[in-house]
Amino acid sequence: MSLADRAHGMLRDAIEVYRDSPRATHWLRRHVDRLAEPLRVAVAGQPQVGKSTLVNSLVGEEVAPLSVEEGSQVLAWYRGGVNPRAQVFPTQAPPRDVPAARMGGRLHIDLEGWRSDRIDRVVVDWPSRTLRGLTLIDTPGVDPSDAGTRISLDADAVLYLMRQLHSTDVGFLQSLQDHPIARETPVNSLVVLSRADEVGGGRIDALTSAKRLARRYRKDVALSGVSQTAIAVSGLLAHAGRTLTPEELSSLQVLATAARRELEIALVSADRFVGEGVPLRLDARTRTALLDRFGMFGIRLVTTLIRQGFTTVESLSEELVGRSGLHELRETMRQCFTDRHDVLKARSALLALEVVLRMEPRPAARRLVTELEALVVSAHDFRELRLLAAMDGGRTALPDPLADEARRLVGGVGTAMPARLGFTREASGHELHGAVSDALRRWQEQAENHALGAGQRRAARVVVRSCEGMVAELARY
């Protein structure tokens, strides 16, 4: 029985135990239904760190942020839908539909008359391939010091954005684990070094510098226990690349054909670039629009790329997205979140169950308390995720070629059995059984190999358990 199946069964048992408590049964039924929903991923961080921009770059269209009155923004959930639709969930009233439409590739929602302090959230259905199996929760304007508890209950996983590591960032990530089960299973957070183009003063090598900084953060003791890994991404560059228009390319080509000395002088500062008297064949309004879309780093990079031959929308867009770090983020989200959808959903269900057991203790629930504690401690799915994070962050290093095999066997390249065993084609049951038997024997030897360090042997035991799980699965067929 899978972890998700066991979590579902425990929620059902709890509904029976708490059938005389309307508040508890409502809470539990909500979380039973939530198990069947798409994975919820919150995009969190300090104000102005680039959360909405990253949401837009993931979706590939401008859907965020949602503004209510001037200077105010609301919590927004973006999920897949056939047609654009928006619902306001007031704090003290049933949800209501509000007008929503796609205009020029952007989301337009009429929230006139709504006050942000009276809105719990806005839920947006939006036609997007990214959102088919994923709900993104944008948290603009939310102070992380106050938001950790709500995010940990609303979301199954978290992308935490920051410019550079500060104590407030660590404090927020720790607040996500401010729950007995969460502390035992800190496997649902990724740190994103956002606005990576600003590292190093926006120089042309800024993204390279940001990626080096992210690699250092992966080994940082303060982060290693509260996040899976750290990724550097320029959300602005990724979004601009995914939504680049022919008109923007034409304007950027004008800049690229300018005398290099003149362009360098204009790009000394943002004020100079958009100011009057700049010897560039673009009006100030166009330059301002380009600056908003690409930033100073983006304009420097794009004009360089155009000179190197990236002269079509398709080629330039692909290059910008590739350099932005978005592909690495998507791959990490696949490995840590999407492929582990059932595990993270089960984790959320177990957190919800623990809340009820703690808030309304009763003798009839003691069996559930014991079962819950045992499940959290023994669940191998969480150990696999922690090992992948330790290997990717450099905190656990296995010698070649053991490292690649270990990552594969614990689901780092795919959680289906053929992918774990290295098959790129359909394999017979006999082939799968032979491959897993060989892998189990090899890793049992490594788990007892005293030429390896203690941490490496612990990693080997996790791999052994993954192999044993596959052997048990094959035996059922």
How are the secondary structure elements laid out?
Blueprint lengths: L2 H15 L4 H13 L4 E7 L5 H9 L16 E5 L4 E6 L5 E3 L1 E4 L2 E4 L9 E8 L7 E5 L5 H11 L2 E6 L4 H10 L3 H5 L4 E5 L12 H13 L2 H4 L5 E3 L2 H8 L3 H11 L3 H7 L3 H5 L9 H24 L5 H12 L1 H11 L4 H19 L6 H13 L1 H13 L9 H8 L7 H4 L8 H19 L6 H22 L2
Parallel strand pairs: 1-8, 1-9, 2-7, 9-10, 10-11
Antiparallel strand pairs: 2-8, 3-4, 3-7, 5-6
Helix pairs in contact: 1-2, 1-16, 2-16, 3-9, 4-5, 9-13, 9-14, 10-13, 18-22, 21-22
What are the defining features of this structure?
11 strands; Rossmann fold; 477 residues; alpha/beta
Describe this structure in words.
- This protein has four domains: 209 residues, Rossmann fold, CATH 3.40.50; 64 residues, no CATH class; 67 residues, no CATH class; 80 residues, no CATH class.
- The chain is built from 22 helices and eleven strands.
- A hairpin with a 2-residue loop joins strand 5 and strand 6.
Short description:
With 477 residues, the protein is an alpha/beta fold. It has helices at 3-17, 22-34, 51-59, 144-154, 167-176, 180-184, 206-218, 221-224, 235-242, 246-256, 260-266, 270-274, 284-307, 313-324, 326-336, 341-359, 366-378, 380-392, 402-409, 417-420, 429-447, 454-475; strands at residues 39-45, 76-80, 85-90, 96-98, 100-103, 106-109, 119-126, 134-138, 157-162, 189-193, 230-232.
| Name of the CATH architecture of the largest domain | 3-Layer(aba) Sandwich
CATH topology label of the largest domain = Rossmann fold
Unreliable segments of 5+ consecutive residues: none
Largest sheet: 9 strands, mixed
